[in-house]
Amino acid sequence: MEAPGRESYAVGIICALALEMAAVRAILDEAFDAPPNKRNASDSNNYSFGQIGSHNVVVACLPAGVMGKVSAASVAMDMMHSFPIKVGLMVGVGGGVWSEKDDVRLGDVVVSQPDGMHGGVVQWDFGKMEAEGRFRRTGTLNKPPTPLLSALQNLKARHMLEDSKLKTHLTEMWEKHTRTAKTFPYPGASNDNLYEASYSHPLGTTCALCDKSRLVQRNTREETIPQVHYGNIASGDEVMKDGVTRDLIAQEEGILCFEMEAAGLMDRFPCVVIRGICDYADSHKNKQWQPYAAATAACYCKELLGVIEPHAVASLPSATQPMTRYECIPFSRNKKFVGRAKELDILETALFVDQSTQQMAIVGLGGVGKTQVALTFAYSVMDNHPDVSVLWLSAMNKEAYEHGCREIARIYGIRLAANVDVKVVIRERLSLKTNGPWLLFVDNADDSDIVFGAAGEAGLLSYLPKSSEGLIVYTTRNHEIAQSLARNDVVEVSGLNIDDATAMLWLASTHDFKNHEEILEVMDLLDELDHLPLAISHAAAYININHLSVSEYLGLLRNSKEDLTYIMSQEMRDSTRYDGSTSAVATTWLVSFKQILHRDPDAADLLQFMSCIEWKAIPRSILPVVEPAARMTSAIGTLCSYSFITRRHGEQTFDMHRLVHLAAQIWVNKCGRTAEVHVQAIKYLAEIFPVGQWEDRAIWWSYYVHVWKLIRVGSGERYDERVRLCFKVGTRLLRDQRIKEAVQWLEESREWSPGDRHPSMMQCQVLLQLGTAYMALNQGEDVVKVLEPLCEGVGQNITLGIHHPHSLAAQSMLAEVYANRGRDEDAQKMLEFVVMTQERLEETRKFDLLASQRRLARVYTKTGQAMEAVGLLERVILVERRAQVRPEDPSMIALQEALATACQENGEVERTVELRALLSELHRQEFPEDDHGQGEYDSALASALIANGQATKAVELMKHVVKRATQTLTEEDTDRLALVYHLAVAYQASGQPEIAVTLLEQVVAVDAKVLSEDHPDRIASERELAKARQACGQEVEEGSWSLTDTAAPEQAQRGLRNRSPRLRL
Q1: What is the DSSP string of 262-275?
Q2: pLDDT reported for residue 215
Q3: pLDDT value at position 670?
Q4: Cβ neighbours of 490 (radius 10 Å)
Q5: Are strands 228-236 and 109-112 parallel, antiparallel or unpaired?
């Protein structure tokens, strides 16, 4: 028969081994001579020609000894250049994967078929082992042409009803070619041995020495007809020869067979891979089954071609038509790019490996490096995917987008007619299937009006091309836009890690950081810049231009807000940024601020408020309320979508990027609204700042840092809301025993001098709280100065009277000062009047009444009226309990303490022990055990135990307390000395004066260094030491206090009572 011309060959078959090619030639229905017309001059392949069914086929084999995907790709490309190939078949042998699910045996055939996740061939790099022993999949390749897939389905359906023709074709081959029976013999089922995956092959070319007990037990097949399996074939650069690795990859990806050539074909040579199974891809490889496996693969090839209609093949485009790749990127490769390996891998995997999506979005804060990630990925695609065109459009505005479209048109050689919309032209051109694969970057898709359209005008989204071979990557600052464009296929970009940030600074700087001190300064600088790429490149440029050291640059940043603002507002040119775009750190977000102001004014108001407070740990509850709640949620969502704020995981708390916070302040200032926004923030916080309930302390503490920032950083202008806010903060601090801080805030809120006879009601409240703070600091003189003029002026102020709550509160505090100064009778009369009046007045604040009752109880106790004190306090506590005040409430704690003291003075020692134990436990529940204040409660309990005859128990308690204190307090700390003192007293009371002497000598030695001779604590320690020495039979130095002192000086007695650690807050 006359040889057909080259144009008649539409089916190409490629084999890796001569044995495989021989098997294919053996199943040809008819063999042809080479076509008379010449083939491509660069084609070095050696071909066989023939016919299978209705198809003319050309067969090529890889060069001898040159295996793998590169060689396969080269053979395929030469074949396509010489013949109009439309479909291809890769026919040969491979290593099978047996499992309970897929009973793959030697001699069976595995055919590549897409499974919905992969295209039938999965590319793996067997040379790169990842963490946890996993191998890295480096590609999922194109699926075969539709006619081939249809034929596969046809055959699968046929084989469900009848046996395959493999046995028939094998018999025909053996009968037609006499030598084939010897060349391709069936080795027999007894030679089909599968060993356990973990059992490695010992020495030798056969398995004669292998341990047969390690064979996997499988059911014997009733027939010897080879079975056909359809699924994924793994193709790699090396032969798979390890059973454990084989099973690991097979389980992860659903692999049925391993081989080495198919990965070089699938993206350029549209084919089905057919593999006869010759081994199990483990270390027990041998060539016994290779001939028969090659023959079964060839026979399946013949059966497959028998169900493919010639007209179906004829309708396909020729695979020989080369696709031109186009490149249109506005920036050159950034050779100083560092990091972002994870983000780049996510893009590569989703778009080219898993092929799980056609659109992705890179999203993150402005200046975080989204465009640089996209740019680096673009050049990576150009390097690794030579058939993919890479294009770039800027969505910064419509003009920039149109300019990019014109550049693409120029690259593609498209001639534009007058008045034509180039955006439409590019959309339609890229939507054509004949363009081949392309990747389009749409950069700076930040403005929703530009992207999606507004006011009846189409957005840029409507001009984007759609193609089954097209991919699009967006970059945007806006999470909402990212989700709308790419759904969940979003890559979040944040600040660089410390290593990458350091590398970026070093690459961008002309200075070489070598010594340890400079490296530490670099770390500090990167922390100041929050590892933001734009800020790092800006800092490097500023340092280079001005010939600064890192230390000098850091000094400028930290010198003042004005210096920081000036530096961050400087423009530094950068070849990797668009012409006309800002490179100044502080102004890079201004365009986004304007977008928010236009699109969501509520969000803009929140942003302006946040610019006045601290930039981190912002509670949602501190933000100005927007009604309804859905609008508030939307406003917060807008700020989150731009990455201006981030929500802490599992909390209703937000953080703002430090440099965004600075930019927001600059923005507010540029709008001329700094003073207005500041005053509005203070007025709002003056309304919502929590003062009342003890349970609110977590809330108020979260607010405190923000109020501090607002007041301290803002102007010193005085107005009612500022005074009220400072008063609220001071009051709250006072209730939490942060006395010195409370004084600062209350003095800040004080507007009038003591000589003013007409204070406002607000001013009266400020003075009362200030007096309370001075009382807590034992500053009696200051209390008198603040409160006496207020009380004396009561009768002259028509707004107050003697029974006014403010007047009564002032008198109550003054009475305490009088009592401390020995004016007990005056104090008692004044307090009895105050308590009686406060109990009668409905407008009396509960806090003031409780304070007056406690003061009166203390005066009773001091003046020998302990029984009256106990009765008063019991009555008050009963009222509080009926009001369901919790035991841990500070007011209840204070009452219980006063009652314990009264009971002790009244001789009720057992009750005193109960109360002191309760107070100690309540404090332990409310604060960590190592809180220094716990020592005060435990010391008081120890004193009560001693009084109750339980000195041994007191010793054990104080030993634990002192041991705990030694871990956190220095030897000269007054609180630690007080605890050691109480331990010594306990030892003395328990009959162990020797130990007491040792401890008290330590206390007295330190007291002599830090306390004056007449200090009550020092006197008390010396007296207790004298008592302990006398109990040990030691002589007591002249002048020391002794047991014979029946009337110890008042200072010593006061020291014995008062030497207890003060609560530290």
Answers
A1: GGGTTTTS-EEEEE
A2: 93
A3: 85
A4: 18
A5: parallel
**What gap in Å lies between CA 458 and CA 40, rounded to an integer?**
50
Amino acid at 927: F
Q: What is the pLDDT of residues 762-803, one digit of tens each?
A: 777 788 888 888 877 878 888 888 887 667 654 444 345 667
- pTM as predicted: 0.55
Take residue 584 and report the two structure tokens written for it. 């100044």
pLDDT of residue 351: 93
Please, are residues 444 and 371 in contact by the beta-carbon 8 Å criterion?
yes
Strands (E), 301-412: 327-328, 359-363, 389-394
DSSP string, 944-1010: HHHHTT-HHHHHHHHHHHHHHHHTTS-TT-HHHHHHHHHHHHHHHHTT-HHHHHHHHHHHHHHHHHH
Produce one character per residue of 718-744: b if its CB has 16 or more CB atoms within 10 Å, e if not: eeebbbbbbbbbbbbbbbbebbebbbe
Structure tokens at 616: 């981190």
215 φ/ψ sector (left φ>0, alpha ψ -120 to 50, else beta):
beta
3 state DSSP class of 396: coil
**Tokens, residue 396:** 């910064």
CA distance linking residue 859 with residue 905, whole number of Å: 12
Rounded (5°) CA angle 468-470-472: 130
Q: How far apart are the first and last CA of the chain?
A: 105
Which distant-in-sequence residues (6+ apart) come within 8 Å of 716 by Cβ?
A: none
DSSP character at residue 213? G
Written as one string, the DSSP assignment of 655-709 is EE-HHHHHHHHHHHHHTT-HHHHHHHHHHHHHHH---S-GGGHHHHHHHHHHHHH
Please state, in angstroms and rounded to a whole number, the distance separating the CA atoms of residues 793 and 90: 107
- Say if CB 839 and CB 813 are below 8 A apart: no
- Give the chain's mean pLDDT: 84
Which helix or strand (DSSP H or E) is residue 729 part of?
helix 720-735
Specify the amino acid at residue 620: R
Long-range contacts of 195-201 (CB under 8 A, 24+ apart): 195/243, 195/280, 195/282, 195/284, 196/243, 197/243, 197/244, 197/246, 197/247, 197/282, 198/243, 198/244, 199/243, 200/243, 200/283, 201/282, 201/283, 201/284, 201/285
Question: Over the Cα atoms of the chain, what is R_g?
Answer: 44
Distance, in Å, from the CA atom of 531 to the CA atom of 421, rounded to the nearest integer, reads: 43
Asked if residue 484 lies in contact with residue 363, where contact means CB atoms within 8 angstroms, the answer is: no
Any idea what the Cα angle at residue 29 is, between residues 28 and 32, rounded to 5°?
Answer: 75
Cα–Cα distance measured from residue 987 to residue 161, given in angstroms and rounded to the nearest whole number: 99
Neighbours of 619 (CB within 10 A): 15
Helices (H), 268-369: 290-305, 310-314, 341-348
Residue bearing tokens 């990127």: 329
Residue type, 295: A
Q: Predicted confidence band at 544 (pLDDT cuts at 50, 70, 90)?
A: confident
Candidates 120, 103, 121, 100; CA nearest to 227 is 103
Residues comprising the chain, all counted = 1065
Q: Please count the CA atoms within 13 angstroms of the CA of 511 that sit on its side-chain side.
A: 22
Structure tokens of 5?
A: 């011309």
